[in-house]
Amino acid sequence: MKYFAESELIINPDGSVFHLHLKPEELADKVILVGDPGRVETVASHFESRECEVESREFKTITGTYKGKRITVLSTGIGCDNIDIVVNELDALANIDFTTRQEKEKFHQLELVRIGTCGGLQPYTPVGTFICSEKSIGFDGLLNFYAGRNDVCDLAFEEAFCKHMEWSPLLCAPYVIDANAELISRINQGDMVNGVTIAAGGFFGPQGRELRVPLADPHQNEKVESFEYNGYRITNFEMESSALAGLSRLMGHKAMTVCMVIANRLIKEANTGYKNTIDTLITTVLDRI
Ligand code: R1P
Ligand code: URA
């Protein structure tokens, strides 16, 4: 059985995992991930009971029950680097024995649903639309560090995308990964849009936003919006869905992302007063997870 040394899997003196500060018994099988730590309380406000609340850096966690289902809600902060930490530590909590530091004999599968915000890229994704990331294109490069990346990614899609974008060798290779299809069909019951999401390694340049510093490719977003492959078009930009879908697939967990559009990049429109609309998305996911 594989043994994980103290430097590789860091466990705090209280028995909790290094960054999340969660203990194995505090994690539910159904996990909702949000970017904003403030959104954790919005999700947990719908719980009928709470068994634990833990906070460390940007990672705030509450485990409780919703309509009898045990659910953990956890904030990841912004970006795929945090997803690397969160998904690895969640998997360790579920699948490594913290006493012996060995992998457990029986695999324990988690269901991970990210509820986020995003920028819409098509005329049919106006502000307020809920988009499920059926496929994610990772601009972040994270999955390229893991073995098995080529076994789980859509290599033909990647090739077509790089060709269309005239992808610069200065950028890390984009990876294309599917969310869990069963989870998508359960969460999207016809009232959301299934789409292709670019998970960017930044909010400004990597998403084609130009403030004072010009972009390396001023035509990036026009190319993103016009890309089509096997009937798929790119619907939205956010920053975590590819790392979440990719790592979860390599580990054997079910994962997906659903985001509410808060800015439409085509018609240059944004809405920052979205608290009520995202609460509708939260209760919908809580009912269906
Ligand atoms: C950027 O504003 C953040 O918002 C989106 C992006 O993915 C990024 O994390 O998601 P969240 O609203 O979940 O944070
Ligand atoms: N989150 C993003 O990453 N991009 C947007 O445009 C809006 C929310």
UniProtKB/TrEMBL annotation:
It catalyses: uridine + phosphate = alpha-D-ribose 1-phosphate + uracil. Its EC number is 2.4.2.3. Residues 31-265 form the Nucleoside phosphorylase domain. It comes from the Bacteria. Pfam families: PNP_UDP_1. This is Uridine phosphorylase.
